[in-house]
Automatic annotation (TrEMBL):
InterPro entries referenced in this protein's UniProt entry, alphabetically: HTH_LacI (IPR000843), LacI/GalR-like_sensor (IPR046335), Lambda_DNA-bd_dom_sf (IPR010982), Peripla_BP_I (IPR028082)
MF GO annotations: DNA-binding transcription factor activity; transcription cis-regulatory region binding
Organism: Paenibacillus methanolicus
Pfam families on file: LacI, Peripla_BP_3
Name of the featured protein: LacI family transcriptional regulator
Taxonomy of the source species: Bacteria, Bacillati, Bacillota, Bacilli, Bacillales
């Protein structure tokens, strides 16, 4: 039998009105007491009627999360972190995969507005900010996660992508690599642009050129083909920096297809440090993102915005960390 508001009130030792105030974010109730009652609601499985709340203009205790592809381990781990933190605050989460396509972003933005969600976390790439108009014009609070849009005054939680790209470059330079290439995501993905920028500028500071032909844009499905193009050249790179771990796995597959030994014939460095990075063959050197902290921070920022609409926009930048495994080594020419 489903728990009711009466059951929650009895368990918490408060009135029904107090539980209602907690649900709707009203009343003079301490933060500690609100969190205690919210935990009781979660434990008892009590869910206020979303339809009834929407019809009365009250909170629905639902959030939206837009990601490019939930099958990508990075976004699967992000989604879990968001879901867990959302639940801690009493929110359910709708997860939508957009494939980084503006038309899908716009479709889901309108759908979530119609569902009267209390806020939306944007973790997807987009070419035009206008695709979020259904949310922005509808007064729905939003926060960016692992993405940014310079012209938007919207709170964001990101890793220092530039520093991550720079760290990958420094690692490969220290190993003696001078002929390098990059597998990047689509231009609409701001995090990938920053990683490439950090990588390129660090190489330039060391006197190493990275031509535009050395940078290949790729979706996940085409990553092996783009890596084959790079590794099949007469002047093939001795190292490839991949802007996420899934692209790096495509590069590992391409190397195997060509009979190349990793890292002896080519070093490969990824970005994310998902669960897959430690089980590839060989295990993947990658720039680690603090995935759990990112998901938690995005929910916390959005909840603050929901509760305090006039609050100043926050930009939280978390540091990356290079995780060195067996897919990178000194260039054979230096041995």
């Amino acid at each position: 039998m489903k728990a009711t508001i009466y059951d929650v009130a009895k368990e918490a030792g408060v009135s029904i009105a107090t539980v209602s105030h907690v649900i709707n974010g009203k009343g003079k109730i301490s933060r500690e007491r609100r969190e205690e009652i919210t935990r009781i609601m979660v434990r008892m499985g009590y869910k206020p009627s979303m339809i009834a709340s929407a019809l009365t203009g009250k909170k629905t205790y639902a959030l939206g999360l837009l990601v490019p592809d939930i099958s990508n381990p990075f976004f699967a781990e992000i989604a879990r972190a968001v879901e867990d933190e959302g639940q801690r605050h009493g929110y359910s989460v709708f997860i939508c995969s957009t494939d980084n396509k503006d038309e899908k972003v716009e479709h889901y933005a309108e759908l979530l507005r119609q569902k009267n969600v209390d806020g939306v976390i944007i973790g997807t790439g987009m070419k035009e900010l206008t695709v979020l108009d259904p949310l922005l014009n509808g007064g729905v609070p939003i926060a960016f996660l692992s993405r940014e849009f310079p012209t938007a005054k919207v709170p964001s939680v990101v890793v220092d992508d530039y520093a991550g790209g720079a760290a990958a470059a420094e690692h490969l330079i220290a190993l003696g690599h001078r002929r390098l290439a990059v597998l990047a995501e689509e231009e609409s993905v701001s995090s990938s642009r920053e990683r490439v920028r950090g990588f390129r500028q660090t190489l330039a500071a060391a006197g190493i050129a990275l031509d535009q032909t050395d940078v290949r844009m790729s979706g996940l499905k085409e990553s092996m083909d783009r890596a084959l193009e790079l590794l099949g050249r007469a002047d093939r790179p001795t190292a490839i920096f991949c802007c996420n771990d899934m692209l790096a796995i495509g590069a590992l597959r391409a190397a195997k297809e060509l009979g190349l030994r990793i890292p002896r014939d080519c070093s490969i460095v990824g970005f994310d440090d998902t669960v897959l990075a430690s089980v590839t063959d060989p295990p993947l050197t990658t720039v680690a993102q603090p995935i759990d902290r990112m998901g938690q921070a995005a929910v916390q920022v959005l909840v603050r915005l929901i509760e305090q609409p006039e609050a100043r926009s926050e930009r939280i930048v978390l540091p990356p960390a290079l995780s060195i495994r067996q897919s990178s080594a000194a260039w054979a020419g230096n041995r």
